[in-house]
Amino acid sequence: RCIPLWVGARGIEFDWKYIQMSFDSNISLVHYITMAGLVWMFSRYDLPRHYRLPIAVLLGLSVYKAFLMESFVHVLLLGSWTALLIKAMVTGAISLSSLILYINLVHSN
């Protein structure tokens, strides 16, 4: 995703789609790091039982986030910037929730 930003955004004609692509890439990076953390927490052998359900729900939301977001954008006919903002908010909420679970898990051990 870096090549279109480098080639397209530095040309004579500027287009906002390259900035949107860079924001989308950063949001995706945070999403993938969050998913890796959730998978790591779920696969721990010493995970307390009361953490299994919230982590499983967050993993399910992470896996189906793209489908849910595309459905939501299609049904509400949202613009590209609004869809990007909603994607950032959903990713932030999932990331913050998993961070809170991780901190509680670390402090409980």
From TrEMBL:
> A GO CC term?
endoplasmic reticulum membrane
- Transmembrane segment boundaries: 25-43, 55-78, 84-105
User: Does the record carry Iron-sulfur as a key word?
Assistant: no
Q: In which compartments does the protein localize?
A: Cell membrane; Endoplasmic reticulum membrane
Which keywords has UniProt assigned to this entry? Cell membrane, Endoplasmic reticulum, Membrane, Transmembrane, Transmembrane helix
Q: What is its main location?
A: membrane
Q: What is this protein called?
A: BOS complex subunit TMEM147
Q: Which organism is it from?
A: Scyliorhinus torazame (Cloudy catshark)
